[in-house]
Structure formats: C-alpha cells, structure tokens
C-alpha cells in the first residue's frame, strides 16, 4: 500500500467500532491534527459477505447521532471517511501480512467481544493460517518484527475495547503464550514488551446499526452504510504518557476521551451497571417479544425489573462516588426514544457476557445477603431458557460459540426433567468453565424459577419476583 496505507488496523467490523472508535478517529483527524487511516479486519473466520457494504464506497459511511449530550438535544448526520475498507484476513492471509509490513502502521484497535480474547492453541503460522484473533495478531506482529529487523520504532500501540477486565494486558499474555508455543525468539517477546504498548480501555456508547427511519439530509449516496448512535460517548484509556501524547483529545475538544492511571473503578461500575443491565434484560425482553431497550423501558414490568435489578442487586455492592447517580444516568439513556437498541444485537455471545458482567454481582450479593438475589437469578434462568433455542413455539435468535450452544441444547434435550438439565448445564466446563459450580443451591433455585416460567408464564413470574 502506498502513501495512503493505514495507520490503524482495526480488528472487528461490527457497528460498534464504526460508530464509536471510527467516529472518534474522524474527530481527531478533523479537529486535532491526527492522521488516522483505518483498515478493518474481520475478527473471526467465515464469510466475507458482510464486508461488501464497508468497501462499497471506499470505507465511507455516515453516523446519525440522536439523543442528549450535556443536556442539549443532538440530531445530526456526520460522514466518516477515515475508514479505507475492510478485509477478511483468514481468507486472505497474505494481505494481512502485507498490512503488517506497512511502515505507517502504528495502532491496533480491537473489539472481538468477550469471547474474542482467549487462548486457543494454534498451529504455527507456517503450518496453517491462524484461526483466532490473538493468534492472528501474534503472527502479524512477528512478521512485522522480522520485516523491520526488530526496530523499536516499528512497535505498535494496542487499544482493546472488549468488555473484559485488563483487556489489553490479557491479550498481551495470550500473544506471549502463542509466541512460546511457536518457539519464536526471545528477541521478539522482548520487542513486544519494549516497543509495543498494550493499553487497557473502557468504552461506552450505544451504537444500534442501521436506523428504522432515514434522516432528511445525507451527504453520501443512499447505498452507503448509515449507522445510528446515541450522542453520548466515553472512552477511558489506561496509557503511558508517551501514548497519551499521540492522541490529541484536548486539542480536538473530545471530553469523552480520557486518560487515567487506574481503569479498575471506571470499569467495574460501567460493566456491572450498564452492560450488566443489558445482559440481564435481553432474554426476558425477547421472550416477551419486546424488541428494543427503549420498548422495555415502556413495558411496566420490564422497566421495574431493570430498575430494581440495578438499584437493589447491583449498586449496593459497588464502591465509589455517586453510584446511584451514575445508575440513574444509565437508565435515562435506556429511555432514549431516538436510539433503537435492539435486544437481538445485545444477545450476541451472551454466555460469556453473563459470566463477565453479572456473575460478579451475583457473588457479591450472595456474600452480602446470604441468599441468591432473586432478579439476578431470574436473569440467569431466562438465559438458560433462551439458549434452548425456542420459547412457546417461537425460534429465538441464539448467536454464540457454536460448541457451547450445541452443548447447551444437547443437555436440554437429553437430561430429562428441568432440574436435571439445569444441573448438567451449570456443571458444564465447556459452557461455564467451572465458574458456577461453587454457588450453593444455584441449580435448584434456577430449576424452580424455570418451572415457574413454564407453568405461570413470563409476566406472572416476573411480577412475582418483583413483589418478593
């Protein structure tokens, strides 16, 4: 690639990265003298069909910002042209290596969901194309290291957006593990540690994808991608000064782009409250045929469920300033009529999301009160029902790791009564990695709720849980 070769390789082609990171890079380019040129890489093997819209107009797309920012109503369409296009590196591995050898490459940005940053043993790249994001990145960085003879100035800065604790440093450890598996030289692992910076980050913006309606004015052709997002955004980055200097947030007037020394308290409240409420709400809402977060906030039982879950079972076990105020602001964002945040999209990879977002709240509440919190239990019971794949004759949109989904559905079909199926699922190492086995009485409590859901119906059971 020539003078326009990318400075940023973005692993993930979903709407969140487009409507969040790419929008921020566009603001940095326009207002902060930043040179951000992005190529997006598919984060998992599979069909390249979904990349076609991103490549149709050379990566250009528009984002429709709707909602409130700093108390002011925002309703505007903005064009984003910092994205140059997208490739499938698993189908065109040679193209991925060409990108890795670009002198201009400076940044890695990823959002592969909670399921994406995990270690899966892989053959060395000379034997087979890597099949996971961490293995692919290891191979690309080693190619870059070799191509430039280990030059320190060719290191890259890695910003991870996945909603797991210590996302970038966890990724770094997986890269080192692949390097050891493949017997790569110590000089490469030293280069990873000294020339590359792995920065944990915390992201926050609701990006819903293509809107149901069309704005009155667009600057790009009608067939260019159009995304809808709330006006609010927050990107908190735990980074050394050397990396902070490269992102002109202040010069660009991006108050939502912040640098901190310790991300932990920021992450805990955001993941447990905002993301936790999302993961707790999707199964019940979809089983009740309520399609969006906003619609759930208009449903009297679902609204009470989300509010009670947040205020009564999540917030009491969090420390920090004005937790209740933060929670109120989150619930206010859920009630934004301008953003169609579909539960079907939130449902993606919900097993790992529940483990990362809600299990800590369940364990904390259990320790504090001595008994399982009823609404968190209900959210897990609904999740298990959802992963059966159907409810009352309706097919449910289960999208997750294929092996975990198959195992869950096999156990539902082969274990006889509800109690046996639930116990088997809770004990499954493949599905839960052992994290639920130590919760006393969990299988029995979940089975009782699921029996009630099947006997009395969703709304009756939800009302009973709320009245307890």
Automatic annotation (TrEMBL):
Transmembrane segments: none annotated. GO terms for cellular component: cytosol. Gene3D superfamilies: N-(1-d-carboxylethyl)-l-norvaline Dehydrogenase, domain 2, NAD(P)-binding Rossmann-like Domain. SUPFAM superfamilies: 6-phosphogluconate dehydrogenase C-terminal domain-like, NAD(P)-binding Rossmann-fold domains. GO terms for biological process: mannitol catabolic process. This is Tagaturonate reductase. It comes from Parahaliea aestuarii. It comes from the Bacteria. The keyword rRNA processing does not apply. Its EC number is 1.1.1.58. Pfam families: Mannitol_dh, Mannitol_dh_C. Keywords: NAD, Oxidoreductase. Residues 7-243 form the Mannitol dehydrogenase N-terminal domain. GO terms for molecular function: mannitol-1-phosphate 5-dehydrogenase activity; tagaturonate reductase activity. Residues 262-448 form the Mannitol dehydrogenase C-terminal domain.
